[in-house]
Fold this protein.
Amino acid sequence: MVTTPQMHSMPVKIYRTQLRVMVAVPMPGLEPDDISVEITPDATLVIRGRLRGELKGLKDELVNEWSAGDYERAIVLPQEVDGELANVTYGNGILVVALPVASQTRPARLKLTTLSATRGLHAGNMGRPIRPYARV
């Protein structure tokens, strides 16, 4: 039986503090290189993940009640954020995006640095205080 991968829309948890908007998304079965995060100028967070190689044609699928990847989700954020200063982590199958609140959205396309086969990181503001971004 040959199955074609279908795009999955992942459930999300969105949190907000005075300084950050945080989004947590389960994306099991992926490696950090398979994940992309984009913040668009209109304050939309777009998360994509693509599943590679899953035993390409080497298995007969008998029962499939759940599957991993391909993932895509667009989330309109509740306020303006600075995409370039975002921190993104991936571990234990969960992607977490922490976006600093800003006076105007600064778009960005973010890729994770691979720390291991199942862990990744993009550090946009580690070790620096977060201040709302304002264009001059």
User: Anything to note?
Assistant: The CA atoms of residues 33 and 99 lie 20 Å apart. DSSP finds no helices and ten strands in the chain. The chain has one domain: 13-53+64-123.
